[in-house]
Amino acid sequence: MKAGFQKYLWAQVACLSLGTILAFGQSSGFAQNLEACKAGRAACDQSKLSAAQSTDVALTSHGRNVVNCRNGYDSCDRSKLTEPETIALAVADHQRNVTDCNDGMQSCDRSKLTPSEAREMAVGQQQRNLAACKDGTGACDRSKLTPAETEGVNSARRELNASDCENGSGLCDHAQLTASQTQETAAAQHRRNAQNCENAWDECDHSQLTPLEAKQTADSEHQHNLSACKDSEATCDYAKLTPAEAKILVDAEHKRNYAACLKGYGYCDPSRLTVEEARTIHPDN
Fold first, then answer.
1. How far is it, in rounded angstroms, from Cα 106 to Cα 208?
2. What is the pLDDT of residues 78-129, one digit of tens each?
3. Residue of 43, 88, 166, 198 with fewest CB within 10 Å of its CB?
4. Are 63 and 52 in contact (CB under 8 A)?
5. What is the Cα–Cα distance from 1 to 7, expressed in whole angstroms?
């Protein structure tokens, strides 16, 4: 009797567990189906949606279609837009086309512009072409310039060339320089070379230096070398130091070595210590 009752209990528990599992699986399946319908996926089964879910899905789908239309996607279905949405879309499309035309985009449709918008676009194109011709960047069409604009462009290009020559940058054409610009360019190149030499930079031509500049460069190079030697840099050339400078460096190095040995910190060479210094060094250091 007892064994039969236990079997009955286990059977009830099994049925409840199975029911829970089936209910959970069914609930999970409904949730996945609702998600698929909201996302507009092919896996959506509209028949499994409740009335409230169908309404929610319809609103989500409509909102997605509005966004697709606003972004100009092929998936846009204009027939599903309300009248206010259709008007708002037409306004947005027109403004986007105006912007594309003013920015010189290939997506511009000139046939959709109003006469005033077309004139504004033409002015913008002329200004962009004029700027491109003056700056030497972008596509310059000189055939579209007025005589006054052509003269302005020629003047701007001469000034730009003179600036490039003077700064040693860009595409310098010395043949286009005036006599005064040639002198200014030569002076700027000379100053730049003197600065390069004094700072030990590349592109230094010592033969172009004046006697005063050569002396200043030599003094600067000497100081650079002295600093490199003081900092124990690989570029140090000890042969270029004066006897007094060499002695100062030797004394400084001797003090550094003694301090390292005394404190037990840093590179220490005991062989370079004096007898008196060696006596002050603790063995543990």
1. 53
2. 888 889 988 888 899 999 999 999 888 889 999 999 999 999 999 988 999 9
3. 43
4. no
5. 10
